Amino acid sequence: MSITDRLRRLIHLAGPISVAQYMAEANAHYYATRDPLGAAGDFTTAPEISQMFGELVGLALADMWSRAGRPEACYVELGPGRGTLAADALRAMAAAGLRPAVELVETSPALRAAQAARLPGAGWHDDLSSLPTDRPLLVVANEFFDSLPVHQLVRADRGWHALAVTWSEGVFRRVPGAARPAPLPAPVGTIVETSPASVAVIRELARRLALQGGAALIVDYGPARSGAGDTLQAVSSHAFADPWSEPGERDLTAHVDFAVLCEAAAAEGVEIRGPVGQGAWLQALGIDQRASALSRAAPARCGEIEAARSRLVSPDQMGTLFKVMALIAPSWPTPEGFE
Q1: Which of 117, 114, 120, 82 is nearest to 101 (CA)?
Q2: Which residues does residue 151 pair with via DSSP β-bridges, in sequence order?
Q3: Which of 51, 130, 208, 288 has its CA 20 to 30 A from that of 267?
Q4: At CA 206, angle to CA 89 and CA 81, rounded to 5?
Q5: Which residue(s) pair with 333 in the sheet?
Q6: Calpha distance 282→274 (Å, rounded)
Q7: pLDDT value at position 225?
Q8: CA-closest candidate to residue 315, choices 274, 257, 276
Q9: Nearest to 215 by CA among 305, 138, 145, 151
Q10: Which pLDDT belongs to residue 183?
Q11: Cα(179)–Cα(292) distance, rounded to whole angstroms?
Q12: Edge to edge, what strands does the sheet with 271-277 contain?
């Protein structure tokens, strides 16, 4: 049975489902059945654009680890894609003397196979609960939280209602559902989003860091301050697509609410730095110097290297929309790029 037929049957039997359930079911099928990255896939992430991204992430973690006294630690990545970021980061870490165990939080069989080819000796986990508990964690989550499901509320004439997904006239569509307490005054038609799944993950991660030590770098896209708006979107073949058509065959994401994540993590006893723009962060870490070094070593690739650097840092590309936030265990130093 296709994912479309399964969702149609579920709606027929139980009535409209939440936007969060629709998004979760669609993304679970999508990621379980393909490698979505690269030119032949649906989208490209920063690590796939250039090795510089992963190298600088690795050096930032290694520098912080060194200033923390060089303890035995684990490298943890949430949603590691093909393993490209981890491979580049680990290579940079090794040059700085850090060779941590590698633990990957990934549920997709297709992506686990790609990661295994790049990262021999890595361990895999379905969620954070089975990660090691006996050492500090050096965590990276690049474009992980944007794929976690969101609930949507809409302001109607008589208050706020949860948006639900139904099947009508041969298509999936959103309809107002049960009434909900008003989250804020707003004009009729306003949509707000919440992501309990994201809050649950960030709180568990923060609790782990507070107990075990270490830090997490969260890289994703969205505003620094909470706000209203319908940000749920679909991408297929590197172009925007209809999120309510062909569920499970296109990537569904929503903007990350960094303010909510900061508040949830801080409540668990970790220090927060950022969010700061990805471009400013990478430049503070030395991406311009690294690009120059790579160009000197391979003059024929100078244009390609500069194009990748610009894509990662320019305000009109990824430099401003994408942001970086750090969670830091008590007594651990602040990673570079936030001071």
Answers
A1: 120
A2: 194
A3: 130
A4: 35
A5: none
A6: 13
A7: 86
A8: 276
A9: 138
A10: 67
A11: 57
A12: 123-125, 101-105, 74-78, 137-142, 214-221, 322-328, 271-277
How far are the Cα atoms of 8, 94, 228, 257 from residue 4, in angstroms, in the given order? 6, 46, 29, 29
Residue 166's pLDDT is what?
Answer: 96
CATH code that applies to domain 3-286+316-328 = 3.40.50.12710
Q: How far is CA 72 from the centre of its chain?
A: 26
| Peptide bond just before 275 cis, omega within 30 deg | yes
Residue range 88-129, pLDDT digits in tens: 999 999 999 999 999 999 999 999 999 999 999 999 999 999
Tokens at 190, concatenated: 């306003």
b/e sequence 146-156, b meaning 16+ C-beta within 10 Å: bbbbbbbbbbe
| 284-292 contacts at long range (C-beta below 8 A, 24 or more positions apart) | 284/336, 284/337, 285/56, 285/59, 285/60, 285/336, 285/337, 286/56, 287/52, 287/56, 287/312, 287/313, 290/52, 290/55, 290/56, 291/52
Token code pair at residue 12: 């027929």
Distance CA 109, CA 28 (A): 11
d(CA 195, CA 149): 6
| DSSP characters over 38-83 | STTSSB--HHHH-HHHHHHHHHHHHHHHHHTT----EEEEES-TTS
Low-confidence ranges of the chain (pLDDT < 50): none
For residue 165, what are its two tokens? 């997904």
- Dihedral sign, Cα of residue 58, residue 63, residue 67, residue 72: positive
For residue 185, give every residue at least 6 positions away whose Cβ sits within 8 Å of its Cβ, in sequence order, or none.
none
**pLDDT above 70 covers what percent of the chain?**
99
Name the amino acid, one letter, at 101: A
Instruction: Give me the percent of the chain exceeding a pLDDT of 90.
Output: 87
Q: Which tokens go with 65?
A: 């680890």
Characterize the bridge pairing of strands 322-328 and 271-277: antiparallel
